[in-house]
C-alpha cells in the first residue's frame, strides 16, 4: 500500500510511516541505491528486511529525497547532505522516518509484546510505573518508554550511553500522547520532547531535541 500515515509535528518537522505490503519487485521500481546501500541490501538474507529497506526509500521520496541524499557517519547514524535532520526505523511490516529542518530528531517503531515486562528492569526503574491498572497497560507504557529511549539514543549516538543510567523519561498518561525526557551523560544534560502514537499493535515514538536543551 502507499504511505500509511503522515504526521506534521511542526511547520519544520514531519513523520512518514509506511505499512509494507508490496512484493520486493514492486518496491524496487524507481529506487536507485548508492553503492553503500546496495551493498547493505545485497547482504540482507531476509526478504522482509529488503522490503523494509526499499520502503524507507519511498518514504524519503515523499519528503523529496533520494538515496543519494543520505549518508551515514561512523556511528551508523543517517544524515542528509542538505543539513536537515533525519532518523529511520523499521519493525516487522512498518517503517518510518522523521525529517526536521530545525531540530535533531529520533524515531522508533516497536511491536507491543509482553516480553518487555521481563526486560524492563534493564532499561528503566520499573517501580515508577507500578501504579498501572493491568499488565496490558504496563506493557503499552513500557513500550513507549523503550521507544523514547531508542529515539534518544539515535539522536545522541554515543558509545557507552546507558538506557537505564543516563536517559530519564518523565512519567506520562496515555491521553497526553507526549512527555519530556533528559539525558545526563559525562556531566552534560540535554532535554527532549517525546511524542507517541499507537496503531495495529505497534507503538511509534519520536523525539526532538529542545532548543537550548
Automatic annotation (TrEMBL):
InterPro entries: 4-PPantetheinyl_Trfase_dom (IPR008278), 4-PPantetheinyl_Trfase_dom_sf (IPR037143). Gene3D superfamilies: 4'-phosphopantetheinyl transferase domain. It comes from the Bacteria. Residues 105-193 form the 4'-phosphopantetheinyl transferase domain. GO terms for molecular function: transferase activity. The keyword Transferase applies. Keywords: Transferase. This is 4'-phosphopantetheinyl transferase superfamily protein.
Amino acid at each position: 500500500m502507499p504511505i500509511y500515515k503522515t504526521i506534521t509535528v511542526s511547520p519544520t518537522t514531519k513523520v512518514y510511516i509506511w505499512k509494507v505490503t508490496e512484493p520486493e519487485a514492486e518496491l524496487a521500481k524507481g529506487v536507485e541505491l548508492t553503492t553503500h546501500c546496495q551493498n547493505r541490501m545485497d547482504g540482507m538474507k531476509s526478504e522482509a528486511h529488503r522490503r523494509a529497506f526499499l520502503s524507507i526509500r519511498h518514504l524519503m521520496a515523499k519528503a523529496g529525497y533520494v538515496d543519494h541524499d543520505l549518508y551515514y557517519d561512523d556511528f551508523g547514524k543517517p544524515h542528509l547532505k542538505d543539513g536537515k535532520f533525519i532518523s529511520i526505523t523499521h519493525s516487522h511490516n512498518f517503517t518510518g522516518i522523521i525529517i526536521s529542518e530545525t531540530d535533531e530528531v529520533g524515531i522508533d517503531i516497536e511491536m507491543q509484546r509482553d516480553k518487555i515486562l521481563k526486560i524492563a528492569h534493564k532499561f528503566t526503574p520499573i517501580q515508577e510505573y507500578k501504579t498501572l491498572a493491568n499488565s496490558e497497560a504496563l506493557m503499552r507504557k513500557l513500550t513507549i518508554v523503550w521507544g523514547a529511549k531508542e529515539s534518544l539514543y539515535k539522536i545522541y549516538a554515543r558509545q557507552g550511553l546507558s538506557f537505564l543510567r543516563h536517559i530519564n523519561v518523565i512519567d506520562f498518561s496515555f491521553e497526553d500522547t507526549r512527555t519530556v525526557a533528559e539525558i545526563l551523560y559525562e556531566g552534560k544534560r540535554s532535554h527532549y520532547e517525546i511524542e507517541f502514537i499507537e496503531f495495529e499493535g505497534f507503538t511509534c515514538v519520536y523525539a526532538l531535541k529542545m532548543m537550548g536543551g
